[in-house]
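Entry 12.
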Amino acid sequence: MTKRQPEVSLHTPLCDLLGCEVPVLLAGMGGVSRWELAAAVTNAGGYGILGMVREDPSPIAEEVTAMQVATDRPFAVNLIPAATEPGLLDAQIACCLDLGVSAFSFFWDVMPGVVARVKQAGCLVLHQVGTVEAARIAEDAGADVIIAQGVEAGGHVHGRSRTFALTEAILAQTDLPVVASGGIPDGAGLAAALTIGASGVQCGTAFLATEESFAHPYHKARIAAASGKDTVLTDVFVLNWPKGAAVRVIGNSVTDALNGHYLGHDPDALPRETIACDDDQPRLRFSTDSPLRNTTGDLEAMALYAGQGVGTICDIVPGATRVADMVAQAERILGAVGSNNSEVAT
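Predicted 3D structure (tokens):
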């Protein structure tokens, strides 16, 4: 007697909506998710998102144009309206629309007027949220896709619920596609997300540790060597952001000095001390800046973003390899599940 191995397709309706082949989204990591990484993920069948947080229109135009040359597939631009000066935000959106950007990824507090503006221009809106209430507000504002970010995520973390619990809670109150994000570094996480009803996953840490990522090699090496227990959630890296905006990072000398008091820091009470530079731009201790390719200085003391799934990332590979490995692992897992649940053929 043999069991028929069922064919497994990871293609979900979300893929049709976004124009990708597999439901693996690149997180729009500011400074890190530039055109090289976004194009690598997109051309591998995933969905690339350019991280253009607080960037001026000129670098946005450069990145979008380079992306359009590198791929003919759809992609999105990530902005954070609630944490961007209104005049700059207006210029960012206008620049993207002028260049034919067809989708936006937003994060932090929902700003319905901003969502309405890009929707009226015919664009898709993906909105990352940290609570069920924020998901409802985003849907009411016109979002097409909800990204449920759990507390396991690296970088800025808006909510405090775990990824899959939040995803399931949002799925229970919306018919929109819901993408799980936070602590999902591999195909096992992708398979688990699809099993609970998510339409796909969004990954940051897994793609930060790739060859095309604009992160500094030091940051990538720290990710490859870290475990989930090495990460901490803290608001000490808060300069440039509102008070209480927490981030998940790999522990370093700055977090060690907190003696476990990771939360409750007032940005107005923190010193402004330059510890590094991006070319001619100073980077301060306690700022939200992470080390990039062009950063020099005390990299160890900067925000080294990583999610709790970091322990399964042990190497630096091309972005396309990361996508392919995730997809292959998910297909094996889901195929085995389908085979175990299928009838025995004789």
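Annotation: Confidence is low (pLDDT under 50) at residues 1-6, 342-346. The CA atoms of residues 81 and 311 lie 32 Å apart.
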